[in-house]
């Protein structure tokens, strides 16, 4: 599975200009052939790789040092084996891993199915080995957690839809529409046609012209441009609770307000990007060679930051024997900061229902001002994938006894907030990953979240005292806070401030606006599925 992902990344660099030019394609111009090839896109290898297949990948860390790696320990020489199984008939992917790192071994599984990513608990122990302890603030929480921890994400649905397109040897329609829109902006003179191949080459002037044409096209075809954005992000909008048609109208309105850049302005901006090479070539004959070369340099106006990005992608062959390679490299050099160089070199070979690939990754970073080595990373990956028509992937059946939603444990994983519903009073409360039972639930009053003060503040590590007749005294580290019931004014270390809404009593409990917590304690406050999540960003010392 990982091999195909990397292969698709490489293909993405050339998709704008297609891959297969059939002998029967229309002839008028080279650009017409590119447009036709996008409409008639064909993967070129066995569709079984997107139906039922198993991939075995071995990843080895060959170099790992530098100041950024000190906390992670010595992982040079560590290795991980991934066994990935795809069963598209069940919308299921299972990844089993075995690692040998930092002197210990871990094995576990994770799954992708419908709209969920499901992890076994060992996955988080593995992350901890590499210094990424998700349960650092509450170590007992992992021990107390059930066997499976999961995340729900509506955007996964697009993966299975795309899988159906690939099984039919097709590019998803939204990608076709997007690529056609882009290619239409490239003037005909940058395409050429010989007896054996189609070539597209952009130079500096060509890049500037394409940028101008693209901005003009977006203005002139704003409805089409809006549809492209909506179709490419339909599941993102669905997850955020946004009405696609409403968003479409907002995009169109935004395009109407978008200023028109002159050619002179575009030339000025593009002067900071140097087109050293931008060439795509594809054989007209089926299975013939195809290549894409990109080499861009960039710099800031004062020359203090320079960089380069280059990619070379080559492929040839048909479904029975397809070979290819890609070489992606780049550099970033800040004279007063870091210098980073990276490269990824890969080769792959598809022979009917078997595919192999080799990948080498290198990254080096240093501090230009001190000469300190920040990172020296080297890794290799070898992968073999095989179509297996009899493969069946079994996904765990989740229930309340064997699973927990990671979003309930870690509010920071929330990517979106459900829109507030005025007057809602049945909200639940989770503080720093712990469910809080209260006599009075959080509520939404107008557009403001209000929460029970003592329950939340004590869970955040503060001490709270009620002083008759109408005062709440809060001690938190170096802060002494006074809140007065039915008043928007409050004091911090004797300095007067204002709440966004007055504190008030409900069932003898003080209710305060949640914005107060953000202002004074730098907390994250999020609402999802009728649960209010409150999380410390900066820990407060308890003062009794």
Report the mean per-residue pLDDT as an integer.
83
Biggest sheet: strand arrangement? 7-8-9-10-11-12-13-14-15-1-2-3-4-5-6-16
Structural shape: globular
Structural class: alpha+beta
Largest sheet: 16 strands, mixed
Number of helical segments with 4 or more residues: 14
Which runs of at least 5 residues are low in confidence (pLDDT < 50)?
Answer: 1-27, 414-424, 538-544
**Strand content range:** 35-45%
How many distinct beta strands? 29
Please report the distance between the alpha carbons of the first and last residues.
Answer: 55 Å
Radius of gyration: 28 Å
Q: Fraction of residues in helices?
A: 10-25%
Helices, strands, pairings?
Elements: H1 2-12, H2 30-39, E1 52-65, E2 79-87, E3 92-101, E4 104-113, E5 116-120, H3 122-129, H4 139-144, E6 148-152, H5 156-167, H6 173-183, E7 191-193, E8 197-201, H7 204-220, H8 222-232, H9 234-239, H10 244-257, H11 263-270, E9 273-283, E10 290-299, E11 305-318, E12 321-334, E13 338-351, E14 354-367, E15 373-387, E16 403-405, H12 406-409, E17 428-431, E18 434-435, E19 443-445, E20 448-452, H13 453-459, E21 463-467, E22 471-476, E23 479-484, E24 489-492, E25 495-498, E26 504-506, E27 509-513, H14 514-521, E28 523-528, E29 531-536
Helix pairs in contact: 2-6, 6-8, 7-11, 8-10
């Amino acid at each position: 599975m990982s091999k195909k992902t990397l292969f698709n990344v490489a293909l993405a660099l050339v998709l704008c200009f297609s891959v297969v030019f059939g002998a029967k394609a229309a002839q008028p111009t080279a650009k017409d052939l590119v447009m036709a090839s996008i409409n008639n896109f064909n993967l070129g290898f066995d569709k079984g790789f997107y139906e039922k297949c198993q991939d075995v990948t071995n990843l080895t860390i060959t170099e790992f040092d530098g100041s950024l790696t000190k906390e992670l320990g010595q992982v040079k020489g560590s290795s991980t084996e991934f066994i990935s199984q795809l069963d598209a008939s069940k919308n299921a992917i299972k990844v089993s891993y075995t690692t040998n790192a930092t002197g210990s071994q871990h094995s576990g599984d994770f799954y992708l199915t419908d709209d969920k990513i499901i992890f076994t608990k060992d996955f988080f122990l593995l992350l901890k080995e590499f210094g990424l302890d998700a349960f650092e603030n509450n170590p007992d929480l992992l021990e107390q957690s059930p066997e499976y921890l999961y995340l729900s994400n509506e955007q996964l649905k697009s993966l299975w839809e795309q899988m159906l397109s690939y099984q039919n040897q097709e590019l998803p329609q939204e990608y076709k529409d997007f690529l056609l829109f882009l290619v239409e902006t490239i003037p005909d003179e940058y395409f050429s046609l010989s007896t054996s191949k189609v070539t597209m080459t952009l130079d500096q002037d060509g890049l500037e012209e394409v940028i101008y044409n693209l901005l003009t096209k977006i203005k002139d075809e704003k409805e089409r441009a809006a549809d492209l954005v909506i179709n490419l992000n339909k599941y993102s909008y669905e997850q955020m609770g946004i009405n696609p048609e409403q968003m479409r109208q907002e995009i169109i309105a935004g395009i109407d307000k978008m200023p028109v850049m002159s050619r002179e302005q575009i030339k000025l901006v593009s002067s900071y990007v140097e087109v050293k090479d931008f060439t795509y070539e594809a054989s007209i004959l089926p299975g013939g060679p195809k290549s894409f070369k990109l080499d861009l340099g960039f710099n800031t106006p004062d020359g203090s930051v320079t960089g380069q990005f280059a990619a070379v992608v080559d492929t040839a062959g048909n479904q029975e024997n397809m070979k290819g390679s890609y070489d992606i490299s780049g550099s970033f050099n800040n004279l007063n900061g870091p210098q980073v160089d990276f490269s990824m070199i890969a080769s792959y070979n598809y022979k009917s229902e078997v595919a192999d690939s080799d990948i080498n990754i290198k990254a080096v970073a240093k501090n230009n001002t001190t000469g300190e080595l920040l990172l020296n990373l080297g890794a290799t990956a070898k992968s073999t994938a095989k179509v297996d028509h009899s493969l069946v992937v079994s996904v765990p059946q989740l229930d309340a006894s064997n699973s927990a939603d990671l979003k309930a444990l870690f509010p920071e994983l929330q990517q979106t907030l459900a829109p507030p519903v005025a007057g809602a009073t049945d909200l639940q409360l989770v503080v720093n990953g712990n469910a809080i039972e209260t006599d009075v639930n959080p509520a939404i009053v107008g557009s403001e979240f209000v929460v029970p003060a003592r329950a939340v503040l004590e869970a955040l590590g503060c001490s709270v005292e009620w002083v008759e007749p109408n005062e709440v005294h809060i001690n938190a580290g170096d802060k002494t806070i006074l809140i007065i019931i039915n008043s928007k004014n409050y004091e911090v270390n004797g300095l007067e401030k204002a709440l966004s809404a007055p504190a008030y009593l409900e069932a003898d409990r003080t209710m305060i606006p949640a914005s107060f917590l953000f202002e004074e304690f730098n907390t994250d406050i999020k609402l999802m599925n009728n649960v209010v999540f409150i999380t410390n960003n900066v820990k407060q010392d308890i003062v009794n």
